Amino acid sequence: MADTARAVFVTGAQQGIGAAAARAFAAAGCDVAVNWLDDEAAAEAVAADIRAAGRRAVLVRGDVGTAASCAALVDAAVAGLGRIDVLVNNAGIFPRVDFLTMTEAEWDRVLDVNLKGSAFCAQAAARHMVAAGTKGVILNLSSSSVRGAVLGVHYSATKTGVIGITRSMALALAPHGIRVNAIAPGLTDTAQPRYGNSDAELAEMAKALPLGRMGRPEEIAGLMVYLASPGAEWITGQVYHINGGVYLA
C-alpha cells in the first residue's frame, strides 16, 4: 500500500516552537519539510528526530522575507515531499527597539519577515493545495504581543496583522476546503524571550502568569497538531490564545 502520510511544511523550524512543531507532526505520522536559515546543525538535528520517528524529512533553507523566496521555499517543500497538506507559518523575528529611535529599515524588515512572509507563504501553499484538490490547513503564528510590546511596536503590528490576514484568508480559501487558523502563544520557553531578559527576569514574568510558569514549545505544537487534525475540520478563521491563563481575547 502506498504511504499516504500528510506532508507538513514548517517555516522557521531550526529551533524553538518551529522545531517542536516539526517533531510533533512527525510523531503524529506526518512527513515534514523543515525550513531553516542560519543553523544547519540544528536543522539537521530536527530532521534526524523526524526520521527517527519513521517519517520523511526535507531540509529547505531560505528567508521568508520576499514573495519570491516564499514561493521558492514552498516549491522546494513540495518537490521534496510530493505535496503539501499543512503549512505552519512560524518564522518570525523580534529585534527589540525603542519606538523613538526605530528606523524605517527596522520596521520594514520585521514586517517583511513576520507579515509579508506569512501572507505569501500561505498564498504559495494554497495555490499548490488548490491545484491538487487538497483540503489543506494553514496555521499562522500570532503572539500575546497583540496587546502591545514596549520595545516591539513593529513586532506587535505584525502579530496583530497576522490575525487580520488569518480571518481574511479563511474566508477566501473556505470555498476550496482550506482551513486557516492562528495561534497566539504567550511567554514560551524559547530563545526569543531570552533576548533582552535575564533568567531572573523571566522567572518573575512567569510567576506573574495565572499558571505560574512559562509555556513549553511542545504545548504550542500540540495545539497545532490538533488544529490540523480531522477532529478540527469545522474550525477556521479562529485565533487561539495559549498563554497560561492571560486573557487576551
From TrEMBL:
Pfam families: adh_short_C2. InterPro entries: NAD(P)-bd_dom_sf (IPR036291), Sc_DH/Rdtase_CS (IPR020904), SDR_fam (IPR002347). The keyword Protein biosynthesis does not apply. Keywords: Oxidoreductase. The keyword Oxidoreductase applies. Belongs to the short-chain dehydrogenases/reductases (SDR) family. PANTHER family: 3-OXOACYL-[ACYL-CARRIER-PROTEIN] REDUCTASE, SHORT-CHAIN DEHYDROGENASES/REDUCTASES FAMILY MEMBER. This is SDR family oxidoreductase. It comes from Roseomonas nitratireducens.
